[in-house]
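Sat 14:20. Reprocessing the chain from the morning session after the first attempt stalled halfway. Input below, unchanged.
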Amino acid sequence: MLRAASLCVLWASFVLGVPVTKERQKVLLVSFDGFRWDYDHDVDTPNLDQMAKDGVKAQYVTPPYLTITSPTHFTLLTGRYIENHGVIHNMWFNTTTSEKKTYYSTQFVNEWWDNGTLPIWITAQKQGLKAGSLHFPGTASSYQGQVAMMREVEPFLYDYKNETDWHENTDKVMGWFRDQDLDFVSLYFGEPDGTGHKYGPDSPERREMVKQVDRTVGYIRDSAERHGLTKRLNIIITADHGMTTVFRGPQVEQITLSKIPGFRFSDVSFQLLDYGPSGMLLPKPGKLETVYKALKGAHPHLHVYKKEEMPEHLRFSKNDRILPIVLWTDPGYVLNGFFPVQFNKGEHGFDNQEMDMKPFFRAVGPAFHRNLVVGPFETVNIYPLMCHLLGIEPELNDGGNVNFWKNGFIGLSAVAGFLLLVFIVTISHSFLKRKQKNQRQF
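Finished this time. Tokens:
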């Protein structure tokens, strides 16, 4: 009895203060690409600050490895680590023909995305809800023959910085919620990633872009109110990864594979290099050990692993698409193939345990506590959270670990009411038993 009562008190404490609503909850997932967890520390962000006061703020969240755009966004949509959902890179590639496709072209390679794991759009629709997506990675694909009910794929050579477009896209999504009665929408903004790459995460340009993001956060909340959605819409704002400064200058020993003694590109049949700090190699038959031994320990800031020996925390080995040799660098260094071709001042793609790779997290709405700061958690947990808010059964996923749910930052009023009722019944039952026992003694 005591244990049951304590459990009821615990869960009731999680959900106290949540407004009572009988209407179905709606969810908007927003991603600001490359928004590092601490980007609001050196910029005045009144709208993000207000969102934290009105809702929940995480200290930071941990993305999966590989910390690049498409793979980490698909984790947000599926709750699966990258090795499990199979979208292992921004680039589709064919090891037989050595063909590669750019980030944008890969959005339209259906089999790259439709690989057995369903994004939340399709799961929601299979269970009778309505879903949409605007510019979110993976939107262009169909999954088991289905697409998001409402969708818009970003145009070719899209201007990610245009603030007017950001407002128009926000209003379009709010219109979907109101006029089409959608239950879930994912919305993507390509900044501050682009600015962080070009100018570096410590630049004044990045700080100005964070101000633009903050203004847009305010616009998103204002638009929700103008469309009459505030009492039903839960807004989750996060990102795919962080950003770190790239080391340049004569004092920096660049990592260029062609200059490593004993390594020959003639021993490799396919390579995926020159893409930030990460790379993969497919050695020719019989050359695996030769390539591996030549690269292992060749540079103090280069990590080289056979896929089956990858560090457990990266969870980046158990997929046929991952090539036999995986390489990545320490923060600040990039990986070059034949010669340096990368000139970004900021990069991501590093080990997901590096603090500069951590994104931010905010959530506000009728299902969330107010003014609550929670500890760090992995982004695989955002998917089961959204399924819970929508009232749908999630697909197989890697989220929902104990530490995440112990944060206790959500709770629907129906659950609160039920647990409160159980608590009252439990206490009443205990009181009556004690009263009857006392009467028998007299």
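The domain at 24-245+353-410 is CATH 3.40.720.10 (Alkaline Phosphatase, subunit A).
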